[in-house]
Design a protein that fits this description.
This protein is an alpha+beta fold and 267 residues long. Helices cover 20% and strands 29% of the residues. A 7-stranded mixed sheet has the order 2-1-3-5-4-6-7, with helices on both faces.
């Protein structure tokens, strides 16, 4: 049984929510270790959280994932646990977990968190991370709670999904969009390097593209150093996707782009 719970949320670190959740875990079993993935997910941003978990799941210890980005807390959305070959993922049924599940081979089973013995009695219905998710994660990670005692098994086909948008490829262009902008202003797209290679582009080539309505030319570089000073470059990032960058600068600010901005590469 894993003694590590990996924890991600959109709580931030200012109001004590993260500490309270970790405190609940420690009260159930003070030998459990909590691995903080991030608590800086933008508030209510399920897409950002899904992508973050998809990237992280390949590198964090196998066992238990506790993930909470939950704009529907207190509504009829379910609190769930999903089993995978990696381990058990616990969080809201709003699509937050499905990309991480897919990355490690897909969901095997899902259960609703409804065992009253593992739900903290609470006034209000707005802090399920404290009252439901954390107790189930700690109970399972410590070996005190078995999966079959979580609650009823759910049909996997009924779970909510977040899907990465697909590119649209023709003879003349590759149409994609910006999925994710990191702290440095690098703009990850949903375009793969294979899609560039299929159009006979290679590292070192100059590529014509459009970001929203802004036309430009970018070099395909093999790292974040671009020989064209002050110009946007293209690089395959550490997650294997095509990203736009500015050497020692912020590509997002230069391009004035945002999450979901359209990116078109001309062939």
């Amino acid at each position: 049984m894993s003694k590590i719970i990996s924890f991600a949320s959109d709580f931030g670190l200012n109001d004590g929510s993260v500490g309270v959740v970790k405190g609940v875990i420690s009260r159930i079993d003070d030998s459990l270790k909590v691995n903080d993935i991030s608590h800086g997910i933008p508030p209510q941003d399920i897409k950002y959280g899904s992508l973050l978990l998809m990237r992280a799941i390949q590198y964090i210890p196998q066992g238990v994932l506790l993930a909470v980005v939950d704009p529907g807390v207190g509504t009829n959305r379910k609190a769930i646990a999903i089993t995978t070959d990696w381990g058990v993922m616990i969080g809201p049924d709003n699509g937050l977990l499905n990309l991480a599940c897919a990355t490690v081979g897909g969901a095997k089973q899902a259960f609703e968190l409804e065992n009253e013995n593992w739900i903290i009695p609470h006034e209000g219905n707005t802090f399920h991370a404290r009252d439901i998710f954390a107790p189930f994660a700690a109970g399972y990670a410590s070996g005190q709670l078995k999966l079959e005692d979580f609650g009823k098994e759910l049909n996997l086909e009924d779970l909510n999904q977040y899907l990465i948008p697909l590119t649209d490829i023709t003879d003349e262009e590759i149409k994609g969009e910006i999925l994710y902008i990191d702290e440095f202003g690098n703009c990850q797209t949903n375009i793969s390097p294979q899609e560039l290679s299929d159009k006979n582009y290679k590292i070192g080539d100059s590529i014509s593209l459009k970001v929203d309505n802004q036309e430009l030319t970018a070099n395909w570089c093999d790292n974040y150093k671009n020989e064209k000073i002050g110009a946007i470059g293209i690089v395959v990032d550490s997650w294997g996707m095509v990203s736009l960058f500015l050497s020692n600068g912020n590509a997002q600010k230069l391009l004035n782009c945002k999450d979901n901005s359209k990116v078109t590469i001309k062939v």
